[in-house]
Amino acid sequence: MRRLVGAPLLFSASRAIVRPMLKRLQHLPLLLLSDCHARLRCATAYTLYLLILILGSLPGARQEIGSVASGLILHSCAYAGLTFLLFTGSRGLPRQRALKAVLSIAAMGAFDEYVQSFFPYRHGSVGDWAVDCSAAVVTASVLWLLWQRLRPHQTSASQIDSNSAAFCNRQ
Questions:
Q1: 149 within a domain of the structure (yes/no)
Q2: What pLDDT digit, counting tens, does each position of 150-166 carry?
């Protein structure tokens, strides 16, 4: 039977790399859900939307990425991600957050399709806009339900507020 000489060294090296990464991931919920980073999430959503507009306007870009995923998948994932960022980045009750996110995505999707209609190699599609809106409605609905169930347990106690404040102050 052969014995692996470098196995203990490899195991300890991988543990030294993975452990700090896992330690940093424990702050991920605070980064994604805390109020101190809400403006950052909104700014990220608008920046990503501008990138969608710019990169979608490049000749041949849509055909290249179309070989990886269909337009339905691309629109759904992109606008669901934007909806998440807008929902978690806005203030108010979950119902208000959902409404703001869905209306913003509807406007963004409509403007995206409008811009596409000016390029000869692209075309605006009401179907794509409907996919954008559907992704926003589904994502906002799921977030609304989760926010009502999970967030009140966390925010009713001052524990998450103090953790959030401590996290925000360390950044």
A1: yes
A2: 665 444 434 444 545 55
- 60 occurs within a structural domain: yes
CA dihedral 53, 54, 59, 63 (to 10 degrees): -50
Closest CA to 56 of 134, 115, 126: 115
Q: What is the pLDDT of residues 19-64, one digit of tens each?
A: 676 666 666 666 667 777 888 899 999 999 999 888 878 787 767 7
**Count of domains forming the chain:** 1
CB atoms within 10 A of CB 87: 26
Whole-prediction pTM: 0.71
Q: For 68-99, how does the pLDDT look when each residue is reduced to its tens digit (9 = 90+)? A: 767 788 889 999 999 999 999 998 889 999 99
Has residue 19 been placed in a domain? yes
Distance between CA 52 and CA 65 in Å, rounded?
12
Q: How far is CA 107 from the centre of its chain?
A: 18
DSSP string, 74-86: HHHHHHHHHHHHH
The helix/strand/coil state of 122 is coil
Give the Cα separation of 129 and 165 in Å (integer): 39
Length of the chain counted residue by residue: 171
